[in-house]
Design goal:
By secondary structure, the chain is mostly beta strands. About 5% of the residues lie in helices and about 45% in strands. It contains 1 helix and 29 strands. Strands 1, 2, 5, 6, 7, 13, 14, 15 and 16 form a 9-stranded mixed beta sheet that branches. Strands 17, 18, 19, 26, 27, 28 and 29 form a 7-stranded mixed beta sheet that branches. Strands 20, 21, 22, 23, 24 and 25 form a 6-stranded antiparallel beta sheet that branches. The longest helix has 30 residues. The radius of gyration is 30 Å and the shape is globular.
Length: about 450
């Protein structure tokens, strides 16, 4: 990224399904929407904030426009949106309070990147007293999609958290629920929508985003969010002064069930010792991070770099997905002095990082595993899904696993020992044995019945 600009504008009042959040207004309005802007807009330009009446009083809300440029000074990522956060925190006296965190007029976007075929795009915003928000956006051959969102709020900000018991930055990670968007298409959502995780409610509205912009021109094709597709035309009630109306109750729409997370893509990883390949791995990886709600994170092979070390009795594979997810696998040799030796997976550690500052969001380690064992000189294979329990909150799911941490020859996997989940041949003796057992039981029962009938044919003299 060589150049970019940020535009901060005030929110506009209107109707919204969320308390205290303005709706977008008519589609012809351009105050805080879309790529339509004059060349006169400058970096860091601010407009006067508009005070909006919310549930708990007046608050200031700003729109942020980010236009990221590539090396040729062409737009590669465009984003314009408004958001605010409802955060529940513990106070000094042990009570739990909910506060509102809004974007400030001095928001910056340091660390935002364009992304490419092998690196996710990143939109990052810093605002207020040590608060930050980011979303990374991944790309396929035909679509782009938000992956996960990171919010860091600073409870040292006494204007927002005047009596917080816990002091310092707090980071929360959450999955972006939005579906994929076709390349060369703008995602637009005028109406507000909510993303919840742990103690955080994030409210977004007036959203316009296009990642991986082609030829430096923001597309005119749009994909609208579900909230922008009403079943009937919305009506705007007239404003009547000094009149109190009775509140009306409307039925809430049925919640949309969460979209299941697809299985991860399978990646090919290898390590070298000098010019010789010493470690081979093929695997699809998915993390399950259990917070208040489970968070599934697929590891993207296109953005993942392999590192590690080979040895005679231990070997380690370290995978780094975009400097945000680190997973380490350590293998060891059983009975190193025995004539017949096996290797096995001994340890797995997982670390989630904040891409903006590198701080640790979550970490987990299990160094007492005994999985994936196979004879030394062979490989281990398991096509079916397996689960590694790292701790009570973190699991690693593997798919299409094929791995050889020792004695790799000619850059190829050796003969594989398959896991029991893949071995369907074991069902044959089980079925045959069960059939024989049933047959024997039938014969025994028939014999007993026959004996009883034969005794019944004789009379006692």
């Amino acid at each position: 990224m060589t150049a970019s600009e940020v535009f901060v504008a005030p929110a506009r009042p209107g109707r919204s399904p969320c308390p205290g959040v303005p709706a977008a207004g008519s589609s012809s309005s351009t105050a805080a929407m879309g790529p339509r802007r004059s060349a006169a807009s400058s970096r860091g330009r601010l407009l006067l904030p508009l005070l909006l009446l919310g549930v708990s009083g007046f608050f200031q809300s700003y729109a942020v426009e980010v236009d990221i440029k590539d090396a040729s000074n062409a737009t590669c990522l465009y984003a314009n949106w408004m958001m605010r956060f409802l955060i529940t925190y513990e106070s000094n006296n042990g009570d739990y309070k909910t506060t509102t965190l809004n974007l400030s007029s001095s928001a910056t976007h340091n660390g935002s990147v364009c992304g490419n075929d092998t690196q996710a795009a990143l939109v990052a915003v810093q605002f207020g007293e040590g608060h930050s928000w980011s979303i990374n956006i991944t790309k396929t051959n035909e679509t782009y999609q938000g992956d996960f969102i990171t919010l860091t709020y600073n409870t040292n900000d006494t204007a927002v958290f005047p009596d917080a018991k816990r002091k310092g930055p707090v980071t929360v990670l959450m999955k972006d629920p939005a579906g994929p968007v076709q390349l060369n298409t703008v995602f637009v959502c005028h109406n507000s929508f909510v993303i919840e995780a742990e103690n955080i409610t994030q409210i977004f509205w007036n959203v316009t985003v296009q990642a991986f912009v082609q030829n430096g021109t923001v597309s005119k094709k749009e994909t609208r969010c579900p909230a922008d597709r009403p079943t009937s035309a919305p009506t705007v009630p007239p404003t009547i002064a000094n009149v109190t109306t009775a509140p009306t109750t409307t039925a809430s729409p049925a919640p949309t069930p969460p979209k299941p997370v697809e299985n991860p893509d399978t990646g090919n990883y290898s390590l070298k010792s000098g010019n010789k390949t010493c470690f081979l791995a093929t695997v699809g990886l998915q993390l399950n991070v259990s917070q208040d709600k489970p968070l599934l994170i697929n590891i993207n092979p296109k953005t993942t770099v392999a590192d590690g070390a080979c040895g005679n009795t231990t070997a380690t594979l370290k995978l780094n997905d975009g400097n945000s997810t680190l997973i380490g696998f350590t293998f060891a040799v059983k009975n190193a002095s025995a004539s017949v030796q096996k290797f096995y997976l001994r340890e797995v550690n997982v670390t989630l990082l904040n891409r903006l500052n590198g701080s640790v969001i979550s970490s987990a380690d299990n160094n007492n595993l005994s999985k994936w064992d196979a004879f030394l000189g062979s490989s281990y294979m398991c096509r079916k899904e397996q689960t590694l329990q790292i701790n009570e909150n973190v699991q690693v799911h593997t798919f299409n696993l094929w791995i050889q941490p020792f004695l790799v020859e000619a850059n190829k996997f050796a003969t594989a020992q398959e896991c029991s989940l893949d071995d369907d041949s074991i069902l044959i003796p089980i079925v045959v044995g069960a059939a024989l057992a049933v047959l024997i039981a039938i014969i025994v029962v028939a014999y007993i019945i026959g004996r009883r009938k034969s005794y019944a044919g004789y009379q006692t003299l």
